[in-house]
Amino acid sequence: MHATALLALVGATTTSAFTWTDGTLSLEWSFEGEGADEVIYMSFTLPSDIYIGIGLDCQTSADCDMIVGNGGGRNPAFIEDYNEVEGNREPHTDVELGGTSDVELVEAKYENWESTLRFRRKLDTKDKWDAVIKKVPMDIVYAWCEEPFCVDVHSAHAPGSWGMVQIDFSGENGLDFETEEKTAAVI
């Protein structure tokens, strides 16, 4: 079991922060603004200093909007907006596909063998390579680079270094800091 490292989301003024963990993936999110300007602040933690990633509104890696990066450690911290068009291949950045890079890194951290990336992004970026984030249950795919199988950002993750969950971004079925109810189901 991996230690859970969750970040407090500062500056998100319109909602409570919600959190979920399955012992490997930890997520925390909140929303700020409204309408076309509404953004999500999200942090996610996974066990790697090479790369960690989440796919939004995906049940497979094909045609999957992905946010990939790492928190530092032996490698420079980074975050990038990707889409894995074909599935089971190295993804392309949204910019390489003709879209835009819509993910803003707020904080990157590496401690206790885990990377945590905190970012912000509009719920609807209007980029065809990005999923629209909705305040409803959404499927999330996650993966991380685990040595010795995976050695750099161009390596595939190991067969067991991934998972899928359904996250209720509304928080209605979720764990906020006051209710302690579950926010996701493993799918």
UniProtKB/TrEMBL annotation:
- Keywords of this entry: Signal
> Which Pfam families does UniProt cross-reference here?
DOMON
Highest taxon of source: Eukaryota
Q: Which ranges carry the DOMON domain?
A: 23-145
- Signal sequence extent: 1-17
InterPro entries recorded: DBH-like, DOH_DOMON, DOMON_domain
- Residue intervals passing through the bilayer: none
Q: Which PROSITE patterns match?
A: DOMON (PS50836)
Name of the protein this chain belongs to? DOMON domain-containing protein
